[in-house]
Amino acid sequence: MKYIKTIFLFILVVIAIYYIIDRAIPYFTDFGPEQFGNYYWPNKWWLIGHLLGGMTALFIGPFQFSKSFRNKYLKTHRNLGKVYIIAILLGSFCAIYMSFTVALQVNIAWSISLFFLAFSWLISVLMAYRMVRLKRIPQHREWMIRSYVITFAFVLFRFLDESAIAQSLMESFEERGPTCIWLSWAVPLFITEVILQWNKKK
What we know:
mainly alpha
């Protein structure tokens, strides 16, 4: 079981790095209207804040779930945890702002779906922080897992939205986008909750 978890965390790190390099970094290296497009350029700094927070949390997350890393580098684990929380605060607040501004250019369904993703992202990490402050470590770990599932939704959304199946079933982004957003976090979070609660005896 230990090796399976290690392999899984390694895969998460690889996917996170690929996503950051392929989808996030270009906005920083090619900073201009052509990269952002008319959709994002007027609100570019909000997008930059969202991307900066999201890619930081995406990269840090897997290291926080490694028991050996946590036990060997407890101080580093705590410091990374603080960075993770700050990153999500930044990313989620920027996303919430864009859900009420940029997203409305598409339609209200896209706006609502983005808002609830960002809101859930924010609340999950605040719950993780509250649990660790109360020294309820098992609950803290569970909320951190939930938080990262939502963090990873941004990767899963791109995969779903660009898949041939989704594009064949829903040709317009106005229909496909909101659907894929809900599928990218609500379903994985439900499955995660089932796994977290399955073997509990109390």
